[in-house]
């Protein structure tokens, strides 16, 4: 039996809601064989991130080598990379192995406020990681950080930001509008360099959204691994994350995970 294979290169969330754990659960739900390279261990629960423990470059490089020298991948997702050195290493390895279908979730800060990417890594993310991406999936605060904007407040501003992000090199930009205020819809914009596509869903009033960014990007990665187009993959991932938020779980004392990441 052949099965599509997807790899996540990301941080571990021991609480099971985000990061590697959310990615592998999402791959499984989308019927894709999941593999993982752990960049950073986090000690984390629904109350927040309590510790961040980057792995050595040797350990990260060896994990990537092990996967590409044997199984290979149909799609790769990057999540929490944390430091400048880790971003450099991951880019070099993905280039060395000619990885295809690269989904970059430019993870920067947790919903609880913990930094997941060091400030000094931002330039490398912009100059080296975004240009090798097939798809990038920033939310509005991440887009502002990358583009040096104070805020993005309207759909028109989202379109402009998506265009500016694409100029940094990725083939497709998915700009997630979940943080846009004043609307009862959550609109994500996909920009392919020519046209804008809108993916709209009803906004759900819940605090249980821990891991939604990881889960969404992982679902896109899984669909690309199966050979779907970027447009199809984003449409499927949007439905998947919507269902996950609707069925979110009350686990722990704080911001809980969504069903599919828990
Ligand atoms: N922890 C890890 C390891 C992550 O990769 C992420 C997001 O990508 C988070 C935490 C943040 O989760 P959230 O902001 O959804 O609570």
TrEMBL record:
It catalyses: 4-amino-5-hydroxymethyl-2-methylpyrimidine + ATP = 4-amino-2-methyl-5-(phosphooxymethyl)pyrimidine + ADP + H(+); 4-amino-2-methyl-5-(phosphooxymethyl)pyrimidine + ATP = 4-amino-2-methyl-5-(diphosphooxymethyl)pyrimidine + ADP. One of its GO terms (biological process) is thiamine biosynthetic process. Pathway: Cofactor biosynthesis; thiamine diphosphate biosynthesis; 4-amino-2-methyl-5-diphosphomethylpyrimidine from 5-amino-1-(5-phospho-D-ribosyl)imidazole: step 3/3; Cofactor biosynthesis; thiamine diphosphate biosynthesis; 4-amino-2-methyl-5-diphosphomethylpyrimidine from 5-amino-1-(5-phospho-D-ribosyl)imidazole: step 2/3. Transmembrane segments: none annotated. NCBIfam families: HMP-P_kinase (TIGR00097). Pfam families: Phos_pyr_kin. Its EC number is 2.7.1.49, 2.7.4.7. The gene is thiD. GO terms for cellular component: cytosol. This is Hydroxymethylpyrimidine/phosphomethylpyrimidine kinase.
